[in-house]
Design brief:
Length: about 475
């Protein structure tokens, strides 16, 4: 009996980001990208007996097999291959029979629940720290060291674990997307060289409601063919949107013929995109990528669905622990998804793209939601985050926010003006009228930007809280125009 096979690579970001060293992150990204491509190639070349791939993206794999035995054999095969390639990344997989009408969609839902159950029950690998019988890896500092390696350009040797050894072996390999975009530009091994000023940005985008979209497609006639086409077209849409966005945003950078790439891709495939770059490019890049990606999916044929994205942008000094930055970006992406779901529920059946961002100054950060509870006056939140990207009925739109910052930049608004906005945030007035007076005085000094799309007046966000997003204006302008 035919069955659905589903697999998830556990904690994919934690495998990629095991240290702050850029070469380990780049190598982890390459290894997982190659793992995914090898899976696709095997199915495309009919090397997997009785199986048809219907989705493969980031750490997610879904396929239809002729029988349970073939599916389980394949699950064991790729589990072993992933262990051989990474040493520490691990796979959770499940199989569900297809029965009766709407069998594929029912199997999809059941196998998804089984994956979640197995993930909750599975005991995570334990790293050994400060054990008297082991020496920790000098790179990731999480797993026992097993051998020494030499790094090109460095005089010392490193005692490393098996996972970091495998990454070192692949650290000179490049993702195909680099060759498509920036030729043979040099890829840096540290963040200090990638980011010329103090701040870097990690941008993480993810497709909205992907699990639900796959289930909806699985209910249609010719579901297997539709799902397979959707997966392939989604991959192409992501790569095409990324390439187009890089060419738009870094156009002037490439004209300077610099010898290094201005960004580092971490994940790019299916509906996932994660990239690191100097913070001053992050907002324009996010807006352009979202627009380009959605447009690519609108061009899908065969009645395949349009896909929107939710994005988290985490910004910090280049010395900030990168694993912590990833956690922040994932929390921001989750916040953005909450707004996307709310907009869909309250504004009809269409999908919405959203974004949340945060500039981090502390070495240790609270959860974003906890930190933002204190960003208020007596009555107002001083941020409108998360924001809507694109058309839709919502008072806080990312394009309008960026437009305000660009107008500030064009009019050469002084740093003292921005500092005044920060002062209002840091020393909140207890009276609404006093706050209004302060804002009007500030904006009156710059008549050309007096109309800021109503952002000098409070409006309700999706949680029903009154927001006056002066902090958002100040923070974006301080990065792109200050």
């Amino acid at each position: 009996m035919s069955c659905v096979f589903s697999a998830e690579i556990e904690s994919i970001q934690k495998y990629v980001v095991t240290s702050n060293k850029m070469w380990t992150i780049r190598a982890g990204s390459y290894i997982l990208d190659k793992f995914n491509k090898d899976i696709k190639d095997e199915f495309d070349n009919n090397k997997i007996t009785g199986g048809k791939l219907i989705y493969s993206s980031g750490g997610s794999i879904k396929a239809i097999f002729d029988d349970e035995e073939s599916a389980e054999k394949y699950g064991k095969k790729i589990t072993t291959e992933l262990k051989d390639e990474t040493e520490i990344a691990y796979l959770t997989w499940a199989v569900e029979k297809i029965k009766g009408n709407n069998g594929i969609s029912v199997a999809f839902e059941k196998v998804g629940k089984e994956i979640q159950k197995k993930r909750s029950e599975k005991q995570k690998p334990i790293s050994i720290i400060n054990h008297p019988l082991f020496i920790n890896c000098e790179i990731c500092k999480k797993y026992p060291a097993c051998e020494e390696i030499n790094r090109e350009g460095e005089k010392r040797q490193y005692l490393v674990c098996q996972s970091c050894k495998l990454k070192s072996d692949k650290s000179k390999n490049r993702l195909d997307i680099y060759n498509d975009i920036d030729g043979n530009r040099y890829l840096f091994d540290n963040f200090e060289k990638l980011v010329e000023d103090d701040y870097l940005a990690l941008i993480c985008s993810d497709g909205n409601r992907m699990g639900e979209l796959l289930i909806e497609l699985s209910k249609k006639q010719d579901a297997v063919e539709l799902l397979g086409n959707f997966s392939k077209k989604l991959d192409k849409a992501t790569a095409s949107a990324f390439k187009k966005t890089v060419e738009e945003v870094f156009k002037d950078y490439f004209k300077e013929e610099k010898d290094h790439s201005p960004f580092m891709v971490i994940v790019l495939g299916g509906d996932d995109m994660s990239v690191v770059m100097p913070a001053k490019y992050a907002f324009e890049f996010t807006k352009a990528f979202t627009e380009n990606f959605v447009q690519e999916t609108r061009n899908f044929e065969d009645n395949l669905p349009e896909v929107t994205v939710s994005t988290g942008i985490a910004i910090a000094k280049r010395t900030f622990p990168f694993s912590n930055l990833f956690e922040v970006a994932e929390e921001l992406q989750s916040n953005a998804k909450k707004l996307s779901r709310w907009l869909k529920k309250n504004n009809g059946s269409r999908e919405y793209s959203t974004v949340d961002f945060e500039i981090i100054s502390e070495s240790l950060v609270k959860e974003i939601s906890e930190r933002r509870k204190h960003l208020n006056f007596r009555k107002y939140l001083v941020t409108g985050r998360p924001y809507l990207i694109g058309d839709g009925e919502y008072p806080f739109k990312f394009e309008e926010l960026l437009d305000i910052a660009e107008r500030f930049k064009k009019e050469k608004v002084s740093n003292s003006f921005i500092h005044s906005l920060y002062d209002i945030v840091e020393k909140p007035s207890t009276m609404k009228i006093e706050l209004d007076i302060k804002l009007r005085r500030l904006f009156k000094k710059h008549e050309a930007i007096n109309d800021i799309s109503g952002y000098d007046k409070p409006k309700n966000n999706f949680e029903g809280k009154e927001c006056l997003p002066i902090l958002d204006i100040a923070e974006i302008y301080s990065l792109i125009g200050g």
